[in-house]
Amino acid sequence: MTVGAGLPIVLAGPILRHVTAHNVSVWLATSRHCDVRFEFFPEAQPDLNQTYETGDQDWQVLKAGENLYYHLVDIELGTSLAIDVLISYRLSVKPTGEAGTAWQDHTVWAPDLCYPGRDLPCFKVPDRITSLFHGSCRKPHARTPDGLAGADVVLRQALGPEGETTANSPALPSLLVMSGDQVYADDVAGPMLQAISLLVEKLGLPDEPLDGVEPDLPASGNELRNVGNLLYHRDTLLPRVYKNKTVFDVLFGGTEKPVFTTQHARNHLVTLGEMLAMYLLVWSPASWQGMPELKAPEGLEAKDAEMYAEETVTLKDFRTDLPACRRVMAHLPTAMIFLMITTSPTTGTCRLRGSRPLTATPCRAGLSAMR
How many other C-beta atoms are found inside a 10 Å radius of the C-beta of residue 130? Predict the structure, then answer.
């Protein structure tokens, strides 16, 4: 796949993060280094419209690859926003340094970002938290409907066209809380892993060495993705350790287990690039644009081929709901948290002490991807 070919300018977002009367933070991923413009339109106070652009404030841009840039837009407002009032906004981008290039707002790169009857996305600065949506890790091949698609239905009712909402319409939740790790990096569908590999290449993400692997195994992320016989067999790469008759044996049984205690490691993500790509693919439909038809590789065992076929169907349904996911996070302040005490953010218990260097690779990648 050609690097950068067919990528939209905005790959994911906007995701509203921290929102107060004095500060608004937004996360955005783009395929090019871009200038950003943010315009506020308080619906009850049209005389308090505000506009901010790159250069007005010190907004951070992180380059993760040849065609992947993260924008951490942290706006210190000159005029405070009203509390519990709808604030419409327009986020526009244009490639940095290209004179004469027009600003592109959501009508270009996310025409389905708004709810019916509205031309702009919007949010409220809550006075207090009265209700919230709570979710956790996204699993594209789950056999149940996407919870964020259900949240989208509620927002569609709460943000109906002016004059159409009633006393029976649901209130707009104060925020969306995503506890957990946002993705299952250990439980990845076969076709999803293929899509991740293609996107890593398309984004031009740097290759990553896999320290500590055996001599006959892939020594880097690129080599890992180019090996054709590891779909549903990545668990063979994970370190395994011998255990004495201890409490660990009572809990898990057997004499040899992967250092990673997950039971679903057959398509485990390993590199930072894979995890960055998966986040883009589960938060937005944009990175799926131009994705070729995914097909099961030749030589799959019968049970794996059957699983691949089932996952293909559920993944198709998941992709259908991605515009709803993007829309929800563009309208609700979204808090994402995870715990890192004795567990890995991607795969359950992660025992680093005394294990091979490869053990730490997915853990480091998972932590970096979530920052």
Answer: 11
Q: Are 36 and 54 in contact (CB under 8 A)?
A: yes
pLDDT of residue 209: 87
**Which residues, in sequence order, are bridge partners of residue 26?**
16, 73
- 122 phi, psi to nearest 5 deg: -155, 170
Strand locations in the chain, DSSP E? 10-19, 23-30, 34-42, 50-53, 60-65, 68-76, 87-95, 122-123, 132-135, 175-178, 240-242, 256-258, 334-336, 343-344, 348-349
Structure tokens at 344: 């890995």
Q: What is the pLDDT of residues 117-127, one digit of tens each?
A: 999 999 999 88
**The residue type at 353:** R
Q: How many residues does the chain have?
A: 371
pTM, whole model, 2 decimals? 0.83
Residues 6+ apart with CB under 8 A from 370: 181, 182, 336, 338, 345
- More confidently predicted of 322 and 229: 322
